[in-house]
Amino acid sequence: MKRTNHTIGQVYTTAHHYSRLLAVPMPHLMFRPKDILGLPRHITKGRRSSIYRYFGVCYRRHRIIYLAVGKFDTIGDLRRTIAHELVHLRFPYLRHGTRFETIIDRVINGEQFKAYKKPIPDWWDCPDCKGWHPPWLAAERKEVSARA
Predict the structure, then answer these.
(1) Is the confidence at residue 79, as pLDDT, over 70?
(2) CA distance 56 to 49
(3) Could you give all domains of the chain from N- to C-terminal order, each with its CATH number?
(4) Per residue in 4-52, pLDDT tens?
(5) DSSP state of 96
(6) Do the beta carbons of residue 30 and residue 36 sit within 8 Å?
(7) Among 136, 139, 144, which residue's Cα sits nearest to residue 40?
(8) Kind of pairing, strands 64-67 and 56-59?
(9) Confidence at 140, pLDDT banded by 50, 70, 90
(10) Integer Cα distance of 124 and 129 in angstroms
């Protein structure tokens, strides 16, 4: 599939729908390896040089999901990968296996899940630039201001 505005719109709509079903905050979506490689190294540790191999990657602690939209043949495969990565966010204790796949199928079929008890870090509103930033940036800004 080509990475067009229409396809990206479908990805955001699907991710929003599935994140509501899984009761997780909407993650930040990235679609180019260049965007992932532009993140600080401590976030992408272990998956920097191999990012080109993956269809999707979930950076759970930072609520970032990478999707290689161009690698998918059908929208159904793309939706399954979105559900797969969001299940990683909602069920951090689950590894790949039959139970994991069953939960993906349940999400695709529209089943609602309760929220996970441990909080997932949320993006914060920056008073300086009026934009939204991931939690790791807040920690870096605190370190810089403490040194000054």
Answers:
(1) yes
(2) 14
(3) 5-119 (3.30.2010)
(4) 999 999 999 999 999 999 999 999 999 998 888 888 888 888 777 778 8
(5) S
(6) yes
(7) 136
(8) antiparallel
(9) low
(10) 12
